[in-house]
Amino acid sequence: MTAAALTARFTARVTARAVSGTALIGGLLCAVAACGTDSNSVSAQSRAAWQEPAAYTYTLRSTEGERTLLGTFRITVRDGAVVEAVGLDDSGRRVVADLPDAVPTIGELLGELEQARRDDADRAEAEYTAGGRPVRISLDWEENAIDDEALYAISDYSELG
Q1: Residue 78 β-bridge partners
Q2: What is the 3-state secondary structure (H, E, C) of 1-64?
Q3: The sheet that has 134-140: what strands, in order across it?
Q4: Is the pLDDT higher at 125 or at 37?
Q5: Residue-wise pLDDT tens digits, 96-151
């Protein structure tokens, strides 16, 4: 085989691999973008569907990171404000005793999620019930930073009459 033929054959292989690789990367990017769009639109619809009621109770388990609000709490909300918070573990009891105003409503947790999204946090995700109420909020402002994460698990929700 001549040098020109070898060069042409090598160029064809490299070009085919480059095109194949580019197509694969492009396909993955489109799939990721599509998944993100679908997921975000479902989340947006869910958030829009749920309206924070005037009075409710819920259990909050706040973990991850080095923050003031760590622990498990039983929280009662009336007229958009926490009126009672009970720490259900040692960390929760310390927070309630030392910083009772640090215990949030679900609306305030959603506000923190929205702020993280506006601040372009590396992770600002939520899972919702079919009715649109959040059951889990996961935040990480900088992926490579240590101890800036927050994970909120919301359970035992009940509206009050």
Answers
A1: 55, 81
A2: CCHHHHHHHHHHHHHHHHHHHHHHHHHHHHHHHHHHHHHHHHHHHHHHHCCCCCEEEEEEEEEC
A3: 81-87, 71-78, 55-63, 149-159, 134-140, 123-128
A4: 125
A5: 999 999 999 999 999 999 999 999 999 999 999 999 999 999 999 888 777 779 99
* Residue 131, SS3 per DSSP: coil
What number of H helices and E strands is found in the chain?
3, 6
Q: Which tops the pLDDT comparison, 25 or 159?
A: 159
Closest C-alpha among 90, 91, 92 to residue 74: 92
First and final CA of the chain: distance in angstroms?
Answer: 87
> How many angstroms separate the CA atoms of 144 and 142, rounded?
6
Residue count of the chain, please give it: 161
Which of 107, 117, 86, 100 has the alpha carbon at shortest distance from 152? Answer: 107
Tens of pLDDT along 4-25? 554 444 444 444 444 444 443 4
How much is the pTM?
Answer: 0.70
Taking the alpha carbons of 105, 108, 112, 114 in that order, is the dihedral positive or negative? Answer: positive
